[in-house]
Amino acid sequence: VGNSSVLFCTGKPNVTMITWKISPKAGGPCALSYRADENKTDRTNCSDSINWKFRPDQNPTLEIRQVGIAHEGNYACEVVVTDGNFPETYHLTVLVPPRLTLYCDDRGNPVCEAAAGKPVAQVSWVQGSNFTLEEEHHDNGTVTVLSRLPAYSTNVTNTTCIVSHPAGNQSKSMAC
After folding, report:
1. Domain spanning 5-92: which CATH class is it, in words?
2. Sign of dihedral through CA atoms 69, 56, 33, 88?
3. With contact defined as beta carbons under 8 Å apart, do 66 and 41 qualify?
4. What angle do CA 87, 82, 6 make, to 5 degrees?
5. How far apart are CA 133 and CA 122, in angstroms?
6. Are 140 and 91 in contact (CB under 8 A)?
7. Which residues, in sequence order, are CB contacts of 47 under 8 Å at separation 6+?
8. Closest CA to 7 of 70, 89, 72, 87
9. What local confidence, expressed as pLDDT, does residue 152 receive?
10. In whole angstroms, what is the distance from residue 163 CA to residue 124 CA?
11. Going residue by residue through the chain (176 aa), what tens digit of pLDDT does each one get?
12. Phi-psi category of 52—alpha, beta or left, where left has phi over 0 and alpha has psi -120 to 50?
């Protein structure tokens, strides 16, 4: 999320037409097309963040700037030449790194929160294995994981929470 994504479509010589058809999970479909006989590009219902990376007659690559969860979905490119049609399809999945917070609750228990990650983050502790996990699912597809380590389950004063996620791993330590 927040980065640019580039989807490649195989270029062919003597292109007649190139079309990107985009079906996001959220919102309506959009399309970018290029007709060689008129040297003309067209766009239908696409946001400004979705566009050709280069001139489509030279390179039919698609660029999505500032990728967000709403960009998730299917992206199909079709190159039409005299020899036939050459389709390629991508499924874009957006990773959202969770925000890590570590604090002490009112009973002195360390609490680790991996907020609004996609997919669900895995939370563990360096000290102690007797911890609880709660998940809160949000409407935008992200999930917050809350883990509590009972103070009696470890005799170590400094505890470390580890969050594992495809967008990157994180850890924080503190004493309660």
Report:
1. mainly beta
2. negative
3. no
4. 35
5. 10
6. no
7. 30
8. 89
9. 67
10. 7
11. 888 999 999 878 889 999 999 999 888 999 999 999 999 999 999 999 999 999 888 899 999 999 999 999 999 999 999 989 999 999 999 999 999 999 999 988 899 999 999 999 999 998 777 899 999 999 989 999 999 988 765 566 788 999 999 999 999 999 88
12. beta
| Alpha-helix residue ranges (DSSP H) falling in the chain | none
Question: In sequence order, what are the residues at sequence separation of 6 or more whose Cβ sits closer than 8 angstroms to the Cβ of residue 106?
Answer: none
Quick check: helix, strand or coil at residue 71? helix
Specify the amino acid at residue 37. Answer: D
What CATH topology corresponds to 99-174?
Answer: Immunoglobulin-like (2.60.40)
Q: Which of 102, 133, 96 is nearest to 117 (CA)?
A: 96
Domain ranges of the chain: 5-92, 99-174
**99-174: same fold as 5-92?**
yes
Location of structure tokens 């097309």: 33
Q: What pLDDT was estimated at residue 156?
A: 61
